[in-house]
Amino acid sequence: MDMRARPPTAQAVRTGTVEPGPGRSCPPQYGYSPRVFARTPDIASDTLYVIGGLYGNLLALDAIEQMAAREPAVATLAFNGDFHWFDADAALFAQVQQRVLAHVAMRGNVETEIAGDDDTAGCGCAYPESVPDDDVARSNAILQRLRQVAAQMPNDPRPQLAALPMHRVAQVGELRIGIVHGDAWSLAGWRFAHDALHGVDAVAQARLNAAFEQAAVDGFACSHTCAPALAAFTTPAGDRFVVNNGAAGMANFAGAGFGVITRLSTRALPAALQAQRLYGLHERGVWVDALKVEFDLAAWLRRFDAIWAADSPAAVSYRGRLAHGPAFTRDAALGRVVVHCGG
To answer: For strand 259-265 and strand 286-293, is the pairing parallel, antiparallel, or unpaired?
Structure first.
């Protein structure tokens, strides 16, 4: 949930260079095998929007629904986790949940931990060692506040969150897509972070090849790391890809406040949405595009500031990024430049 982080290093945990405490550990129940995706698709759609990291931003959701309305046919909206985060207000939290659950939804680490009562995992982000301890502590504090808000609501929203699946399989044209929050192995995995995808060595490539084969999918769509990425791979089974939308509800690139979602469709992007396109690829009759989510940033910052004081954990960690974007570029998302996002 912080684009500054590198992919997690199991060796670092084993050797003690990072403590596997709250916010850094990955609960066993977060794990799954890529084989779980080798099943009948849960979703069949000619146009699918994958929306990760809405983070409680209803203005972004308004913009996404308006984009979907400009499609020539009905688009399926699939939220792949962390639709809650900045919405630490009972009324806003309830609105976010109601509107998101009207579509296809999955739980991310945020929803999973809101629904639980165990502090062991903290925010459930499984932050790697490159993220400073203070950032991890602030994320844990944000989660605690969200959990308290949910617990005090008259209509307890937590059972709905707990019941959401961790992954989905979608059929879009000829392509089977595994929709995840983290990666092919874990709800909070970082192996689909931009610097992991664009720094693939022989061992990582073999692991990816095996995941695609076991999952029987042509691509994975994810978020979690808050940094967009698109990477294509040539595997023994054919061409495959991973697309990470970063965050739908907050800034993804330097100097820009827009969110990003992933569109997969058997139809080319309509003229009405051409201005939203950032980059993409075309695979066996399916267009895969990263699209801008342009919302009223000033209005969103006013809502954020009304909930989170200037010295609050969310404001300290995220206010600057919301207003000005992170130190990240489209070239980094596509692997054209090398970016090491250490803290």
So the answer is: antiparallel
